[in-house]
Amino acid sequence: MIYMDNASTTWKKPPAVSDTVYRSLQEGAGNPGRGANAVSLGSSGILLRTRGLLMELFQAPQPENVIFKASVTDALNTLLLGLLKPGDHVISSVMEHNSVLRPLEHLKQKGIITYDLLGADEEGRILLQELPQLERPETRAVILSHVSNLTGTLQPIEKVREKLKNKDIFILADAAQSAGYLPVGLISHDLDAIAFTGHKGLLGPQGTGGFALSDRLNAAMEPVFTGGTGSDSLSLHQPMFLPDKFESGTQNVAGIAGLAEGIKYIKELSLDIIRTNHQRLTEVFLQELSTLPEITLHGPATSAGRVPNFSMTFATLNPSEAAFRLEQDFGIIVRSGYHCAPLAHKAMGTFETGSVRISFGHFTTETELIQLIQALRTLCEVQHGRLP
Amino acid sequence: MIYMDNASTTWKKPPAVSDTVYRSLQEGAGNPGRGANAVSLGSSGILLRTRGLLMELFQAPQPENVIFKASVTDALNTLLLGLLKPGDHVISSVMEHNSVLRPLEHLKQKGIITYDLLGADEEGRILLQELPQLERPETRAVILSHVSNLTGTLQPIEKVREKLKNKDIFILADAAQSAGYLPVGLISHDLDAIAFTGHKGLLGPQGTGGFALSDRLNAAMEPVFTGGTGSDSLSLHQPMFLPDKFESGTQNVAGIAGLAEGIKYIKELSLDIIRTNHQRLTEVFLQELSTLPEITLHGPATSAGRVPNFSMTFATLNPSEAAFRLEQDFGIIVRSGYHCAPLAHKAMGTFETGSVRISFGHFTTETELIQLIQALRTLCEVQHGRLP
């Protein structure tokens, strides 16, 4: 099997990830912050160390400014629901995943907020020049994906602030598709929050994720979910210090222990090397794709300004058929259909058809790429009657 | 090490739990409901099978009426925030965990709801007879823990509906401390929702949990967190069918695969046998405790109407000292301090001191119990100067 659905969830993971999850479950993942026994303290240490790794990765001011959530979706909901107040206006883009669009639409339907969306060009790059027209006195936040889950397009989120008249507007980034592939930091990218998932580029298990946030944003937010934190236990009020303010209930300790191993793997390899490898594979792939007129790529046609998520359609095969054939005939796992980004499909002209998404991961090899290209070539030739 | 903090998180787990989590991570936990490839479909199957097991356990009408959340805290927040509307009144009790009290208090502080709390007797049993005085025309829900996390007291939640004038009030149970130890079902206990955690009595990994709900309650609720569901991908609106209505983002597939193994273990052993074992251990323990005047038990003094969570204080040792000594001198892991249930501590007279909580699990043995008793006896004798 050749796995090329890494934008959904990465696989394989470094062996240390599953080994550590296993050991954590075997040796006893205690309940961090609950009691002072060895098992509980061991778990607290796991959370603290992983927070430290994520703090460095995302340039958070303190480990406590890294909040664990079960998914990037939970992280984005916590950020939006915890920040936005009646009358607020939000700017986002047509390239967003439903994890951003649906919370915004839900808040709009309830009459709490209004929002406007930046458009995108034919490569899926958001039209930042539209920002000044969309900004209003009541604009409270801009929320944008760093990389499109559909087209792989890298968005210029670091340039958002300079386009805003009101520099106090909060800028939130959805780094679901970029964390672990590209640098993204609160400081370097001038952001107030970075929402991340553990199970994609960071190579951790599913059920991990969260967000890093600035102190400025924290001061403007209230908790959404509240409950036991193991702190201020005698109070009926949620503690207002980080990370407890946003972390109630038992954390996924074994998963977070595994996530730390994924992050360590990435740090040791370095984002530079990861990026260089991906660009090399991308260049080969794009070159080959350009020789297959049966296939239309929807997204950046060069390796710059993208990660290796490729959205494509076939002239004579619908996406489900193409994906089915890739899996059945060639053992290549890709994703077909709609990719939880309805307006991005509209912007890219694939709203009626859906698309095939092929996404490389950290462990995609040149051999696999050659097999993929050969498979696509065969599929196209069969379609043109050149093979039986 | 003798682990007696099972009310925080159970340990050990059946070997199949960690084995399955490991295998799931190794073999590829795909992204369920996203695409139709083998990896994604395999993960969908894991969720469906686990839903089926939980449906049976909690008597849900359909597997879809079981919703996965990362913790019982997330489940309780989703239930309360999804159900309650401005002006609603809620009845709960002083015996609740902060995972219920803090969301209620938070909603009250925001001016959305009001709530009243049932009191408790000296064994921590809620005073159901107070219900008629607390019920109001605007009462929308009663939310109660099935078993107290502090005292282990089993609450008569199955008798709530008969005490209510308005039979349409929704009854929600927090089964964090009972699921996997005692039967609790939507039908048998006349409930509208059961919130559960995976990592305690159900023997699954941390990061798993959720709720089972009736169709009637579902019809009255709206989603809280929204986002990608892999369904209705072209719509900006959260799907209104179960389980997608309440499940956005990637689930903790490996964790849920492990949870299924925990539930299977319990089903094979049977709740009857688990209960019988626990009652036998409890009777021995209570008998021995009654011979130690240094120790005051706060909770039911008989094995009936409780699970083996024991909250206690020492005449001459504070709880942290006692717990520290148990761990250092005898290798026994317990929890000391406050147990995220402030009003329960008040009701039990341990608000000033906190308590030591000793909680047995599925794998607590008679040998361990004997060692515990011996340790407590030694601790008490040392305190009275009868030993060096």
TrEMBL record, chains A, B:
Q: Which domain of life is it from?
A: Bacteria
The alphabetized UniProt keywords are: Aminotransferase, Pyridoxal phosphate, Transferase
- Which segments of the protein form a coiled coil according to its record? none
Domain Aminotransferase class V, residue spans: 2-370
* GO molecular function terms listed in the Swiss-Prot or TrEMBL record: cysteine desulfurase activity; transaminase activity
The protein's matches in Gene3D superfamilies, at most eight in alphabetical order, are given as: Aspartate Aminotransferase, domain 1, Type I PLP-dependent aspartate aminotransferase-like (Major domain)
Reaction catalysed? (sulfur carrier)-H + L-cysteine = (sulfur carrier)-SH + L-alanine
Could you say which cofactors this protein requires? pyridoxal 5'-phosphate
**Could you tell me the EC number(s) of this protein?**
2.8.1.7
Which PROSITE patterns does this entry report, sorted A to Z? AA_TRANSFER_CLASS_5
Q: Which family does it belong to?
A: Belongs to the class-V pyridoxal-phosphate-dependent aminotransferase family. Csd subfamily.
User: Can you say what this protein is called?
Assistant: cysteine desulfurase
